[in-house]
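tool_call: predict_structure(chain=1)
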Amino acid sequence: MNDPNDDDVHDPHGAPVDPFPTAFPPPPVSLFPPILGMETEGRRTISDSIPSSSGDPPSDWDQGADAHDLLPVGDPGPGHALVVLGRFAFPPGPPLDDDGQGARDRRWTSRIIVFATLFLLIFNAVSIQNWSRQQPPGWGTETVRRLSDVWAEQIAQTGADRPRQMVHDAWRDWRDMRFPGAETPAS
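tool_result:
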């Protein structure tokens, strides 16, 4: 009954499948030529194109380099095909100098300040009214108060003041909340 050659004991599908395969067949040969920079042998990097005798650091831009077939230093390879296509279609520009970096930082800061100002003008228009009412009377503060009254009315018609009003009402409810049996503060 326990004969090892018995067909009923053996698995009809053959040898079991290895759960952690380590040997893979070679990939099929591609019908298309390799993309520049995809070759693994003879691959150039930015550090290869910069002469070692020059005093320039390796991060300087090499004007004679072709951005399509250079890889950044330390980059193991182009990786995903979409990354390679992105580098081919939109090659990186030269790095910014100090003036260019400063100009980019000023543009970013200016955009953030303008965005924050517009956001507050739209969604917190009542603060301008409150500020103008706290100032001593004068021609300038009276002008600001009147303009802010008109602005707040126009914003209220659009409903942009509702989120601020909801937060203010919730804060007022929390402020007025008391424990049961506690005395209400004198106003």
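agent: Helices lie at 46-49, 81-89, 98-123, 126-134, 139-158, 162-176. Proceeding to next step.
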